[in-house]
Amino acid sequence: MSNKRPILSVENLTKVFGGVVAVDNVSFTVEEGEIFAVIGPNGAGKSTLFNMITGVLPSSSGNIYFQEKRLNRKKPYQIAQMGITRTFQNLEVFDNMTVIENVMTGAHITMKTNILTAGLRLPSVRNEEVKTMERAMEALEAVGISDLAYEIADRLPYGSQRLLEIARAAISNPKLILLDEPMAGLNSEESRQLVEVILKMREQGMTFLFVEHDMETVMSISDSIVVIDNGVKIGEGTPEEIYQNPQVVAAYLGDEEEEGVEAYA
Ligand SMILES: Nc1ncnc2c1ncn2[C@@H]1O[C@H](COP(=O)(O)OP(=O)(O)OP(=O)(O)O)[C@@H](O)[C@H]1O
Ligand SMILES: [Mg+2]
């Protein structure tokens, strides 16, 4: 385990909305190849944290480093080009486009074609399109829904649309993928399929940072967990350590998780 290298470092990150401190001086480091979970009650600041890391929201103070490069004040597309992509808490698919077209939109950050050259229909443009389609198909195969490539996206079951979003996040071959509540709304079969996809992609070298309320998934696939409550980091560690942290249990896991505490302690 000595060859671990940090890929993402969040240092004293803070976000204030008006009078509300949504994220309060949070620090943690994600190592390359990890599956890293952020958990905490509703309104804890988890999505706000993701929005700052991906440049959707500016931070109020603190620093974010990705492979030692500072991300503060970079635009979302620049952060994507550096190798961080994400999915959102709410489903964000283009309803009227086919599944493969949806996935292809995730590739534009690495495509050379711009509007001008696309309009000229140059052979190089056509080649790039074909290559992008091939990559989109590979991404769909990786998440197990390539048979749905030419369906209109909004006709897919919810779980397949979630997988489509992950294929779209993966097509640009990012180093780090952020998933905001990927299991929300999935049935148990769909959740199981998604867990398999995440584990397989991690084996291929991808690093995952994810927010999730489904504790069974969090505890079974995470290498490290950070717990946030009311914007403040209240715990950090392996799943076993988190389940044994009295402050975390009191603030978040609560009494109804007693069974789980025993199972994972
Ligand atoms: N754009 C915004 N403007 C003002 N306040 C915001 C904004 N986004 C989030 N907040 C507030 O910041 C706090 C943290 O919200 P956030 O969405 O990050 O929580 P969360 O941990 O993702 O919750 P959930 O588990 O419900 O998704 C909340 O009090 C929320 O109301
Ligand atoms: Mg959220």
Please outline what is shown here.
The chain contains eleven helices and ten strands.
Can you tell me the CATH superfamily of the domain at 1-83 and 175-184 and 211-265?
Answer: P-loop containing nucleotide triphosphate hydrolases
Task: Kindly report the CATH topology of the domain at 1-83 and 175-184 and 211-265.
Answer: Rossmann fold
- Figure out the total of helices: 11
CATH hierarchy class name of the domain at 1-83 and 175-184 and 211-265: Alpha Beta
Gyration radius from CA atoms, angstroms: 19 Å
User: Unreliable segments (pLDDT under 50, ≥5 consecutive)?
Assistant: 256-265
Please provide the count of β strands.
10
Profile the largest sheet: 6 strands, mixed
Overall pLDDT score: 90
Beta-strand percent range: 15-25%
What is the strand and helix layout of this fold?
Blueprint: E1 6-17, E2 20-31, E3 35-39, H1 46-53, E4 61-66, E5 69-70, H2 76-82, E6 84-87, H3 99-105, H4 115-120, H5 123-143, H6 158-170, E7 176-180, H7 188-203, E8 207-211, H8 215-221, E9 224-229, E10 232-237, H9 239-243, H10 246-253, H11 258-264
Parallel strand pairs: 3-8, 3-9, 6-7, 7-8
Antiparallel strand pairs: 1-2, 1-4, 4-5, 9-10
Magnesium ion binds at residues 46-47, 89, 180.
GO molecular function: ATP binding; ATP hydrolysis activity; L-isoleucine transmembrane transporter activity; L-phenylalanine transmembrane transporter activity; L-valine transmembrane transporter activity
GO biological process, one term: L-isoleucine import across plasma membrane
Organism: Ureibacillus endophyticus
